[in-house]
Write a structure and sequence with these properties.
The protein is built from 19 helices and no strands. α11 runs antiparallel to α17, α14 runs antiparallel to α15 and α16 runs antiparallel to α17. It is 77% helix and 0% strand. 50% of the residues are buried.
C-alpha cells in the first residue's frame, strides 16, 4: 500500500512545478526582448513577441485534450524536455545576421509558448489532484512565490549572467535547468485522477469526452456569464483596466537597452528589483483593497497604476540618468502591483461560485488577449513616435476603463471580495 504523501512533500512538488511554469514565460517576455534588441532586432518585431504569448491566453481551448489523454506526469515531463531542446535549437539562428527574426526563429518561439502553456495546463491539473482542500491555501502561497522567483531567475539572473558569460552560455544554462527539471518531474508521485463526480476548478471531468468536456468546461459557464445584465461593459472593463500597463511592458526592456544599460544592470533592476517591487505593490494593494473596499480601490489604485507610466515618459524625455531609470522601474512596477490586487479581486468576486474557476479563466483569457494585442502594436508605435510619446500614450490608454466603473459597481458586492473556494 502506498504511503500517503505529507503536506511538506506535496508543497515541495508544488514549488518545483510552479518554478518550472514561470521559467519559460520569463525567458520569452523578459529575457528574449533584451537579447533581441542587443542583437539589433527592430522594435516592431520585439513588440510582435506579445502575439507569441497567445497560447497562454487560449490554452483553455486544448485543456480538455490534456485532461482526457495521458497522465499529468507524462505531459509535464514531455513538455519540459521539449522546452529544453527547443531553447537549444533557437540559438542556432542568429538574429544579428539580418537584424530581424526569421520564420524559423518565430516558429521556435511559438513552439516554446505552446509547450509552456500546455505544461501549465498539466501542472495546474496535477496540483488540483495532489492537494487536499485544507492544503490549497498554503499551496497557493507557495506556487505564487515560486512562480515569481522563476521570473526573477529568467529576467534577472539569466539576463545578468549574459553580461558576464555571454548570451549563448546563459540560455544554454536555462536549457540545462529545464532538462534537469524534466528529470526531477519524471519522479513525481502519481495521484489518482478525479472521478466522474469530482470536478476540478476548470469545471472539467477527467473521464469526459472532449466535446462534453468542452461544453461543460467552456460553453455553459460562458453562457451563464453572458446572461447577466451589464456584461458587455464589464467585459470591456476587464479588457481595458490594465491596457496601459500591458502596452508599456513590452517596450521597457528595449528602452533600457537603447539607453545603453548593460545586461547586468537590466537583470538587476527591472529583472529583479522590479519584480520584487511588483510583489510589494500587490501585497499593499491587497491590504488597501480590504480596507477601502473594492470599488474605491479600483479607482484610486487604478489611477496610481496609470500615472506611474508618466514616470517612464518623463525619463525618456530627459537626458540619460541611471537614478531616474532605477526610480522609473521601481515606481512603475510597484504601482502595477497596486493596481493588480483590486483587479484580480474583482475578477474573482464577479464569478459565480459554482463555476468560479472556469469563468475566472475566461476573464483571464480576455485580459491576456488585451496584453497580446496591445503589445503587438507597441513596437510599431514606439518606432514611429519615440519612447517618450509612446509611454505618454500608454497613460491615456488606461482611462476608458474608468468610464465603465458605474456599470462595474453594480457587479461588486463588497463582502464577497475573497477568492472563491475551489
Amino acid at each position: 500500500m502506498t504511503q500517503p504523501l505529507s503536506t511538506r512533500t506535496k508543497l515541495t512538488w508544488v514549488a518545483l512545478l510552479y518554478f518550472a511554469e514561470g521559467l519559460p514565460f520569463g525567458l520569452l517576455f523578459d529575457a528574449f526582448p533584451v537579447y533581441f534588441r542587443m542583437h539589433g532586432v527592430g522594435l516592431t518585431e520585439i513588440g510582435l513577441l506579445s502575439l507569441v504569448g497567445l497560447p497562454w491566453t487560449l490554452k483553455f481551448l486544448w485543456a480538455p485534450i490534456v485532461d482526457v489523454w495521458g497522465s499529468r506526469r507524462s505531459w509535464i515531463v514531455a513538455c519540459q524536455g521539449l522546452l529544453a531542446i527547443d531553447l537549444c535549437l533557437l540559438f542556432f539562428f542568429d538574429p544579428a545576421a539580418s537584424n530581424s527574426l526569421g520564420s524559423v526563429l518565430w516558429l521556435g518561439l511559438i513552439v516554446l509558448a505552446v509547450l509552456s502553456a500546455t505544461q501549465d495546463i498539466a501542472i495546474d491539473a496535477y496540483t488540483i489532484e495532489l492537494l487536499d482542500q485544507t492544503e490549497m491555501g498554503p499551496a497557493n502561497g507557495v506556487r505564487v512565490s515560486t512562480y515569481r522567483v522563476a521570473l526573477i531567475v529568467a529576467g534577472g539572473v539569466f539576463v545578468g549572467a549574459a553580461g558576464l558569460i555571454g548570451w549563448q552560455a546563459a540560455f544554454l544554462t536555462a536549457a540545462v535547468l529545464l532538462a534537469v527539471l524534466a528529470c526531477i518531474s519524471s519522479q513525481m508521485p502519481l495521484v489518482a485522477s478525479l472521478s466522474q463526480d469530482q470536478k476540478d476548478p476548470k469545471g472539467l471531468q477527467s473521464s469526459q469526452s472532449w466535446p462534453t468536456a468542452f461544453k461543460n468546461g467552456f460553453l455553459d459557464p460562458l453562457q451563464n456569464f453572458w446572461q447577466r445584465p451589464g456584461v458587455v461593459q464589464v467585459l470591456l472593463f476587464v479588457l481595458l483596466f490594465k491596457l496601459g500597463d500591458m502596452a508599456l511592458g513590452p517596450m521597457v526592456r528595449p528602452f533600457w537597452v537603447d539607453r545603453g544599460f548593460t545586461p547586468l544592470q537590466i537583470g538587476a533592476i527591472p529583472g529583479t528589483v522590479g519584480v520584487v517591487s511588483t510583489i510589494l505593490g500587490a501585497l499593499l494593494g491587497g491590504c488597501l483593497t480590504k480596507q477601502w473596499g473594492l470599488f474605491r480601490a479600483l479607482w484610486v489604485l487604478g489611477i496610481a497604476q496609470a500615472g506611474s507610466n508618466l514616470f517612464y515618459a518623463a525619463t525618456a524625455a530627459l537626458p540619460r540618468s541611471e537614478l531616474l531609470m532605477y526610480a522609473a522601474s521601481c515606481v512603475e512596477s510597484f504601482c502595477g502591483g497596486l493596481g493588480t490586487a483590486p483587479f484580480l479581486a474583482f475578477l474573482m468576486s464577479v464569478c459565480e461560485k459554482r463555476q468560479a474557476a472556469t469563468q475566472y479563466a475566461l476573464l483571464s483569457a480576455l485580459f491576456g488577449l488585451g496584453r497580446s494585442l496591445s503589445g503587438a502594436l507597441s513596437g510599431w508605435l514606439t518606432q514611429s513616435v519615440g519612447y517618450a510619446t509612446y509611454f505618454t500614450v500608454t497613460f491615456f490608454l488606461a482611462w476608458p476603463a474608468f468610464a465603465l466603473l458605474p456599470w462595474v459597481r453594480k457587479w461588486i458586492t463588497e463582502d464577497e471580495n475573497a477568492p472563491p473556494q475551489l
